[in-house]
C-alpha cells in the first residue's frame, strides 16, 4: 500500500485508529474455544465489527508464535482474511525484527511477500545494513523503533550521544538509509512531550503510537504535537479494544470502544 | 541446560563450536528437494554428521519463518530431533527478539517452553523490562546483542554514552537486571580487539561469537582475549560448514569443515 492510499483511507474514515491483535487464548471469550481455530475466529469477529472505524490492524507476532505451528496458521488466516475482505486496511506485523543483511532479507520476504503485510516493526540496534533490506521492498513500510512506551526505554534510548538522545540519533541516522521514504517510526504516547522534538527531525513521516488508553497516554497530547498535513499518525490500541468484554457480545463491545476513540479522532481530521 | 552442563560438554568434546543452521532452500543439495521436508532432512544429516564436534546448534529463525507454516514445522522437527537424540547439545534460537514485558514473556514461552530451546538471542534497545521476562526462566539463557559483527554496528553501538560506547553500556546495565546470571552476550569476532575490554566488564559470562570464517574473524584472536576459566566462548560458524558442498556427500564435507575448527579449538581446552 502506498502512503497516499493510507492517507486517503484516514481522511475517508476520519480515523487513524490501529487495532492491536495481541490475542491471548486465556483472555478471549470461553465459548470460542470450541471453534477449530479460536484465535482466528476471535480476530475475524473483531475485524468484521470494527473495520469501518480503524485504518490499520497490528497483530503482535509473539502472541501467535507462542502457539507454535498452530499460532502461525492463525496468523496466516488473519492476514489473508484482512487482505481478501478489507484490502483498503493497512496491516502491520508487530515483530520487532532486525538482523544482519541476509537474515533481515529473509524476514522481509516472510512478512512482505509470503504473508503480504504492508509493514513491519524493526529494531534499530544493529544499524544500517540490518534495516535497509526491509526498505528495498516497494510500497512496503518499515516501522523503526525510536522511542518506545515502556519503562525500559530509559535504559538506553535516553542515553546522550553527542549531546543528543540515542532515540533522536536513531531517527536522524535512519533518514540517511537507502529508500528511507519507506520508513515510519514507533513513538510511545506515554512521552507525548517528546513528539514535538521528533517532529522537527521528521515532519513528514508517519508515527505509530502505542500506549494510548491501557498504557495511559493522552490522545489529545499526541495530536497536539504529532499531527501533520497528512495526519501522519497511527494510534494503536490493543487490550483496551479487543478485551472489552468476554461475553458473546465481545465484538459489539469492542466496536463501542473503537468508536469512542474514532469519535475523538475525527475532530482532528 | 545449566552452564555447568555446557562447560562439561565443552571439556569433554574439546570444542566450543556452534553450528548455525541458516538453511536456505536454494542452497541445499538439489536431490533433497524430493524429500517431504527438505530443510529438516538437511538439518538432520548435518546434525548426525557433526554432533560429536559441536556443542551447540543455532537455527536462525528468519530462515524458517520465510517459509511460513511449513518453515515453522521444519524448525519444530529440528529442535525436537536435537532434544530427543542429542540432549547434551546446547540449543540457541537465533531470533533477536525483544518487546514490552508481556510480549517478551510470550516469546520466552514460545522458545523456552513450547520448543524447549536452551537459549534465545535478544535485542537490548527497549531495555530492562523487555529483557527480564526472558531471564525469569530457570536454566534457560538469554543471549543479549552487545557488539554485532556487521557494518551497521557502527551506526549506534559505537556511539559514546558517558565516555563509554553504547555496547559497553548495554553490557554494564544488563548486569543489574534481575536473574542476570542467565545472560550471555553476542560479540562479533570481526572486532576481536574489543573482546579484551568486554572481558573486564563480564569476566565470567559466555560469549556467542559469530563471524569466524565466512565473515573474516580470527579464532586465535578471539581465544586470546575471550577465553576464561570455564572456556566462556561459543564460536558460531554457519555457511562455512553447512554449505561446504551441494552433493550427496554434503554432510560428510560439513563434518570435515567442523572438524578443522574443532582441531583448532582443542588446543585451547
Notable characteristics:
homodimer; 269 residues; 12 helices; 10 strands; globular; orotidine-5'-phosphate decarboxylase activity (chains A, B); Aldolase_TIM (chains A, B); OMPdeCOase_dom (chains A, B); EC 4.1.1.23 (chains A, B); decarboxylase (chains A, B)
What does this structure look like?
2 copies of one chain form a homodimer. The first copy, chain A, is α/β, with parallel strands linked by helices. Chain A has helices spanning 3-13, 38-50, 61-65, 68-85, 101-114, 128-135, 153-156, 166-174, 195-201, 219-226, 239-242, 250-266, and strands at 17-21, 56-59, 90-97, 119-122, 141-147, 160-161, 164-165, 183-187, 207-209, 233-237. In chain A, the strands form 2 sheets. The first copy, chain A, has an 8-stranded parallel barrel with strand order 1-2-3-4-5-8-9-10, surrounded by 6 helices. In chain A, strands 6-7 form a two-stranded antiparallel sheet. In chain A, a hairpin with a 2-residue loop joins β6 and β7. The interface between A and B is large, with 58 and 58 residues. Chains A, B: Residues 16-254 form the Orotidine 5'-phosphate decarboxylase domain. Chains A, B: GO terms for molecular function: orotidine-5'-phosphate decarboxylase activity. Chains A, B: One of its GO terms (biological process) is 'de novo' pyrimidine nucleobase biosynthetic process. Chains A, B: This is Orotidine 5'-phosphate decarboxylase.
CATH architecture call of chain A: Alpha-Beta Barrel
Order of adjacent strands in the largest pleated sheet of chain A: 1-2-3-4-5-8-9-10
Task: State the CATH superfamily name of chain A.
Answer: Aldolase class I
What is the name of the CATH class of chain A? Alpha Beta
Helix residue percentage of chain A: 40-55%
What sort of overall outline of chain A do the alpha carbons produce when their principal axes are compared? globular
Name the chain pair with the biggest interface and residue counts per chain. Answer: A-B, 58 and 58 residues
Oligomer: homodimer
Q: How many structural domains does the protein architecture of chain A include?
A: 1
Helical stretch tally of chain A: 12
What's the alpha carbon Rg of chain A, rounded to whole Å? Answer: 18 Å
SSE topology string of chain A = HEHEHHEHEHEHEEHEHEHEHH
Structural class of chain A: alpha/beta
Low-confidence stretches of chain A: none
Examine the coordinates and then state which fold CATH places here, giving the name of the CATH topology of chain A: TIM Barrel
Number of strands of chain A: 10
Task: Quote the beta fraction of chain A.
Answer: 15-25%
Keywords (chains A, B): Decarboxylase, Lyase, Pyrimidine biosynthesis
Domain Orotidine 5'-phosphate decarboxylase (chains A, B): 16-254
Active site (chains A, B): 96
Pathway (chains A, B): Pyrimidine metabolism; UMP biosynthesis via de novo pathway; UMP from orotate: step 2/2
Amino acid at each position: 500500500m502506498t502512503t497516499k492510499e493510507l492517507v486517503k483511507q484516514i481522511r475517508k474514515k476520519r480515523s487513524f485508529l490501529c487495532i492491536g491483535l495481541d490475542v491471548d487464548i486465556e483472555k478471549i471469550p470461553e465459548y470460542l474455544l470450541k471453534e477449530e481455530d479460536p484465535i482466528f475466529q476471535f480476530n475475524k469477529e473483531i475485524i468484521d465489527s470494527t473495520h469501518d472505524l480503524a485504518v490499520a490492524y497490528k497483530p503482535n507476532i509473539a502472541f501467535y508464535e507462542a502457539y507454535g505451528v498452530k499460532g502461525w496458521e492463525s496468523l496466516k488466516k488473519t492476514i489473508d482474511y484482512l487482505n481478501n475482505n478489507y484490502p483498503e486496511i493497512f496491516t502491520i506485523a508487530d515483530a520487532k525484527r532486525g538482523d544482519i543483511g541476509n537474515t533481515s532479507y529473509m524476514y522481509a520476504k516472510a512478512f512482505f511477500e509470503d504473508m503480504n503485510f504492508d509493514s513491519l516493526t524493526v529494531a534499530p540496534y544493529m544499524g544500517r545494513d540490518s534495516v535497509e533490506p526491509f526498505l528495498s521492498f516497494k510500497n512496503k513500510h518499515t516501522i523503526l523503533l525510536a522511542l518506545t512506551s515502556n519503562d525500559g526505554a530509559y535504559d538506553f534510548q535516553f542515553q546522550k550521544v553527542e549531546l543528543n538522545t540515542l532515540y533522536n540519533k536513531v531517527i536522524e541516522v535512519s533518514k540517511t538509509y537507502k529508500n528511507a521514504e519507506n520508513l515510519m517510526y514507533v513513538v510511545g504516547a506515554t512521552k507525548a512531550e517528546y513528539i514535538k522534538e521528533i517532529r522537527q527531525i521528521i515532519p513528514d513521516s508517519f508515527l505509530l503510537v502505542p500506549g494510548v488508553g491501557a498504557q495511559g497516554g493522552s490522545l489529545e497530547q499526541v495530536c497536539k504535537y504529532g499531527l501533520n498535513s497528512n495526519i501522519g499518525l497511527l494510534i494503536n490500541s490493543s487490550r483496551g479494544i479487543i478485551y472489552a468484554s468476554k461475553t458473546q457480545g465481545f465484538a459489539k463491545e469492542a466496536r463501542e470502544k473503537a468508536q469512542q476513540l474514532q469519535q475523538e479522532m475525527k475532530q482532528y481530521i
